[in-house]
Amino acid sequence: MAKTPPKETNQAAAEKQPEPQAQQQRAVKVDDSGVIAAYSNFCRVTGTPEELIIDFGLNPQPLGPPPESIAVSQRIIVNFFTAKRMLAALQMTLQRHEAAFGVIETDVQRRVLPQARAQA
Prior knowledge:
alpha+beta; 4 helices; 3 strands
């Protein structure tokens, strides 16, 4: 009577399968030769059930009362899958920056030095 080889356990079979493609890190080549860079200190996020719309512009008075309107110079529209990947990349980048340079204060009034307010 010939013995049959033992069946693989689920864990052993899972260990032999290649990782899903989403988990593998691949270098992506980017051609930025035609890119136009723009500075922005204003961002507005809106969206639809299918897309996220991110508007960028320049607020000429970030410390005072906002002007009547802020001109939007760039609009990026992404699906929510891309938005989630972008959120993860931004979070990781900001964590690294804060670890190296300290916490970023987003409240403009807290960033203004007390001496600068007294002189104004």
